[in-house]
## 1
Amino acid sequence: MHLHLSLKSLLREYLRPALMLTLLLTILLGLLYPGVVTALAQLLFPYQANGSLRYADGRLVGSELIGQYWTSPKYFHGRPSATLSDDGSHLQPYNAENSGASNLGPTNKVLVQTVQQRIAELKRENPDAPPGPVPADLVTASGSGLDPDISIAAALYQVPRVAKARGLSQETVRQLVLSHVQGRFLGIFGEPHVNVLDLNLALDALKH
Amino acid sequence: MFITFNSLVQIVLFLALVLALTKPLGLYMTRVFNGERTWLSPVFAPLERFLYRACGIDPAREQRWTGYVIAMLVFNLAGMLLLYGLERTQQWLPLNPQHLGPVEPQLAFNTAASFTTNTNWQNYAGEQTMSYLTQMAGLAYHNFISAATGMALAVALVRGLARRSAEHLGNFWVDLTRATLYILLPICLVGALMLVSQGVVQNFNSYTVVHTLDGGLQVIAQGPVASQEIIKELGTNGGGFFNANSAHPYENPTALTNLIEMLAIISIGAGMFYMFGRMVGNTRQGWALWAAAAILFVLGLAVALPAEQGGNPLLAHLGVNQQASALQPGGNMEGKEVRFGITDSVLFTVTTTATSCGAVNSFLDSYTPLGGLVPLANIALGEVIFGGVGSGLYGMLMFAILTVFIAGLMVGRTPEYLGKKIERKEVMMAALALLISPATILGFAAVASVLPQGLAALTTNTGPHGLSEILYLYTSSNGNNGSAFAGLAGNTPFYNWTGAFAMLIGRFAFLTPILAFGGSLVSKRVVPAGPGTFPTTGPLFVSLLVGVILIVGALTYFPAYALGPIVEHLLMLAGRTF
């Protein structure tokens, strides 16, 4: 073993580089790097860097990337959300300052019961929807609890309800859904989906 | 068949992209670690020289393995203490618009251990706990340096194999600095802006308050996310800015960001295999390891993808349509995002656990039993499937040594690897490195599954799934992965302490025998290959290597897995719930 463990060499060879490098790299990587990225991001992509926030009639109505909790029958609804309140004491769907999933395992009783309740509720809210199995994404909680999207099937499932609540023809609403489908990236990556806020803003714009 | 045509196309394209990136990245890293000039030298060389001067580092002076280990340990200890201090004092420091209080001591210790060891296990929700300053200067800083530490150690080990009759393995400070300046930082600068262009946020705003169209109130967390997101993936760290990690739309908003993030996770690891071949003077040596990793990667996908696309039979009985079609992704969608569906979720999961990343874009606790078994096994096998930056290469090399040893036993010859005789000391070190993990994982898991303090955390799931959660926690901690079966309520003194120790053992008690191994090899002469030499480049070696990895893993973990995911799978088919 060739350990030169005298105190002086320990300080010079190990402690000084360790402390100085920690300090300097913290400044470089912990402050300068995120600072430069923030400056460039704000300059080049200000809309995205600040949260892709959407306005309607000059009023802030949400972020196109962050799902919202919709309850009114005249709007399309997003997926179930398992986010908790800030203190974690109770369910608070689409709490965008405490993202998260249900973490219920596949054989968990609670999962099965919850999905069963969601199906019953969904069928009650959508009496005119086609009978039979319901789209999976409409009765399962997303990973983030903030999923801004639903599948095309999930949007189409809600068309009769929304059309009725707004006094529109089902065909009008159906066409609106289909015109808001976002396809796969390059036709290959990801899944086709419908952004719920986008679709609901378009619905509101119809009546003007 | 539960695999769609689109799935196959995505997987083939993804692997093709990884393959395409391997050689250019590997070549570039070879130049960086050989101390040669690169096309970025005009920008970073002055900064590099300044750092050496300010820190009193002589870049020409190399270290023996002992010096290398001490430098690595002292440097990591300093960073760990700094992070702990930041967490405990963030309430008095700037960049804390939400006025978050100090992090509790045991949670702060767990987190400091977690980020120092490249684990990024998170017993907290980022947006509720950490100030912007702690996220950047504490957590993201560690994302850089724990990655650079891993790369430095892998390079030191490779030098041990490549050099002949030498004593030194390189200079830790130089390897660390060059990995950071020439590899991680430039890729992060470009990658972060690519992520922002897709919608990943990058600001210091306080949280946005929204009055929704439907009459609700929503508070949306913000922050300097993109700069942290890219290094979290590139450094195979995995600690999310937000609780939902890469499932959060502000961390991973589109299929393109998902692709960028997956490539960031796996590319350096894959490139290091090529770099290894280059440094030992035979690129086929590197490609052999690459091929073994690719085979294991595809095997994992072949189990997990059909399991997830097939959906949950218990939900199918209730009248849930889980069939993939042009209108919906179908499959087991609990804990997954619609924009990713099944394919992009499973591909991300296999990537993040094949490497030591641990970022997640879907929640593993809600995966089907077999879908969840794959990430668990990927980590338990040592994260050698391309692996973490650096750690994947040195882990895979340990298996390669074991493979030539076993092959040598079969024919009764002294095993050799790259012309170096593998003798008693080397085999002992390799075996020690490979035994530490299962001993830690199974030991802690056994204790946790009998003690009331361990069982008390099973607040979400019970039955065999509860055992899977406990196994996953220690596997992920020891493997420095950081992904979780997150239903386990792990923020308790018992799990904070035992988890932190599993992480520290998994990192530093694993690294030390590896460097000792490198130190022992570097001094050996190289024997020219003869007719009796077992070639470590061909298909025979690759299949033996894959076999050794799988058999060692199966012998070690099968009994535990049989009681967790496997029995849960059978009970799920029988319609049992817990």
## 2
Amino acid sequence: MTFLFYFLSAIMILTALFVVFSKNPVDSVIYLIICFIAMAGQYILLNSQFLAVVHVIVYTGAIMVLFLFVIMLLNLNKEIILQKSKVTRISAVITGGIFFLVMVAATRLTLEIHPRYAFDSKIGLVSEVGKTLFHEFLLPFEISSVLFISAMIGAVMFGKKDV
Amino acid sequence: MDLTLYIYKTIFLFIILLVTLVVAMYSTYGERKVAAFMQDRRGPNRAGPFGLLQPIADGVKMFMKEEIIPLSANKKLFILGPSIAMTTAMLTGVVIPWGGIITIAGREFSMQIADLNIGILYVFAMVSIGVYGIMIGGWASNNKYALLGSIRAASQMISYELAMGLSIVGLILTTGSLSLNEIVAQQHGMHWNVFYQPLGFLIFLVCAFAETNRAPFDLPECETELIGGYHTEYSSMKLGFYLFAEYINMFISSAVIATLYFGGYNMPFIDQIGLSPNMVTLLGTFFFFMKIFFFIFLFMWIRWTLPRFRYDQLMNLGWKKLMPLAIFNIMATGAYYYFTELT
């Protein structure tokens, strides 16, 4: 189990780096897909098969297909090196650094949060996820679905030229 | 997990792999025979008795052809495309229960490789990854026809995946489980889900046709508009992989339809005959394969009967007809269970 965890983590980190460093956008997308599949593997190690499969269906199967669509249709297959001004570069480095700091701080805090929610090996199974969503988090769940519908309708409105 | 189980699972895995390949191989033969029958021809009859060796001859031919990778193609991805298509097609067979429980030397073995508690969703995940095989292959060819074909294929598969997923929700409401094994077990004794979910079954069937890119939904490879569609630039066994993946997908879709809606390995009057449990299991597997072959025949029957859709008709059918129908099916099923459980 530990070996699998480190193996998947290594794949994830390597492919994530490739996403950033590869010049060809289609290559980046494919590395990101591999990264997501490895992440699904991590979910399975945590005994949450439902989350793993939904992750594959939604992120790998739907969102990344749309990414690939856009890249293919815009024909971004030429290797473009973006030229940015110095101000943009410095501000990008600062923003990225701050974001990294936030991430590190967040991982430090998780150690304190952990005992509050005792680990339950069944937490990732379908019935448990369903019960949690529709009992404890019913209101946020419904509100987020309203948000999604409004986003969808908004996208359709933008897409239509004459409404 | 002990050693016997490991050995059994490994052997069973290879058997399923072989069966899948052989069935897909002979589906090509079957397709040509069915087409010939419908068009009043004889079909393949030269290689072996009744032309039965034709698929082997075809396979050899595929391997002997010159392998061409176009100069302007992206080489890595050009090879990756057919590999993904083939791999994902083969992976789906893992969760399908091919039979009941078989007893060998006092030990019980289930005729299913992995009984995942989210079996149906696993099938969907594999289907959704399968889109990449076509998309990447079409794009890497660096050919406009191939790109158009792959974009058509991908948009078609994503659109119909939605209606397919929604049509399954009604079924899950009736069975209360996502595990394929349990769904089959619940259909014991002619309680086939098709009688409880007729609308869901119809939607699922139409979507299965669209997902496998079969006629009347074979727009990604329609010859008159797009030459060969996404595999225009492919030759040799890489083309063979794409064509073969289509037949494997057809076999697996038929197996999934038979599992979800037609009782899987259950057969009528099995309790009344009074056979030994092992015989019942083997007979059930035989019956399951009969159901699968019927659906493969249905796929071919429809291919040689119906003309192809136009692209806008295809999208209209998927989004404006099948999806609302599937949502209606969910609401109706939900309302039925809500009101029957109240009284």
